[in-house]
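Exam revision sheet. Question 4 asks you to relate a sequence to its structure. Input first:
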Amino acid sequence: MTFASFKNARIVRSGWLDEGGRRLDCNPYMSGALEARETLRNLSVRKDELGTLTAGYAGGIYNGPIFKRNYVESPENGVPFISSGTMLQADLSSLPLLRRKDAESSRLSYLRLKPGMIMISCSGTIGRMCYVRPDMEGVWSSQDVLKVAPDPGLVPPGYLYAFLSGRFGVPLVVSGTYGAIIQHIEPEHIADLPVPRFGSEFEERIHCKVEEAGRRLANFQGLLEEATSRLFSSAGVPNPSPAEWREDKRDTGFTVSSANLEPLRAWNHSQRVRRIVDTIEAGDFSVLGNVIDLDWIRWRVMFKRIDADQENGIEVLSQKPLFHLFPEGRWISRKYLLNHSPRYVVPDRTIIVAKQGTLGEDELFCRCEFITGERALNRAYTDHCMRIVARPEEIEPGYLFAFLRSNTGFRILRGLAEGSKQQDLHWRTVPEISIPRLPAIDETEIADMVYRAYADRNLAVDLMTEATRAVESKILVGE
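Answer key, structure tokens:
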């Protein structure tokens, strides 16, 4: 029997049909799960079922009930809420808040995350994983996230994550997928998944790498928030939280008098934004266009998607994966793309802004990312990503990012949005943004926090990658 899926085809052995429960859909056979299971079966080491290594609510593998999500804006009344999409992001500072009364009820209290848990997306796109790091303590997760709570007395949590997130774990998780339009997996589909055991010394070494990565990511988050907080407290400029922004009623009705009123849309004349800008301009400030390379912000060249293998291609990121800890892009012909324009690849310490989207509060439109480190610089970025390249002799890139990533930066950028349904940022208006300035020593110290944050983040990714590859290598060697 031959299954064909898109451009791929695979011969399926008749014996595999019995293992797959006589299912005649592609999932169990195209995922690589049967090959992975056979490889693990041939290992001489002990294998434990996943369900025997977990503990806690429902045996330690569970998702949650379907429930109405009542969001709030005040941290006093809400708890950070993570979904199967937002769990992939590196910076968790803009998570929505679920009403605390609901979250702490007996019906949902067990959805609170604890460090060392493993989150697996179990609805829609299946099998994406995230290790719960220390700064996720007190975050609640959605019913679309499967929680795996390892028993530390039975298996090191970091080792279990490294196995499950690797080339042998993911296919086994995905193979249990069911559903037509919306795909799902349930706890019972992975409870019998075989976990190879390689001895406490090896497993503890892998666990330590993953744990260190978690600590580095928590430090990354803390440094970013400290950098932005220090900038605004030193400059005396407001950085309104979502609750404070909503409580400000200046935009419910106002008049604007001008001989040159452009554009003719109330959104672009927000009095809440105007109040912040007036505060910035009352002190020392620079106009963005005077401290950046304008050629980069003006650049926008659309391109044809010519797919290529990794040997001849370059990974291209669009807006959504740009913010992921482990972004997955599309591999496009390197020769074609860079001949088309070399500016798809950006210089070190570029600030990228998601420049197209709609105005939902939790959407990525006008959010910023900082591009640094070998991995990020070896990728290309689509024309939907606005490039802001600071001139270091005029302003520290890290300092500028600490401002643009803030709530204030987000609101000012959104105040420049143009379009009807699909909003866009235009290169002629973004350079008009006013940037608060501090003494050079303060700006350097704030920038250094950002650079150290991203050094921690990049090291964390390296550590997690090393841990996963070490487990994969151990399985392939067959020890």
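Marking note for examiners. Residues 72 and 97 are 6 Å apart (CA to CA).
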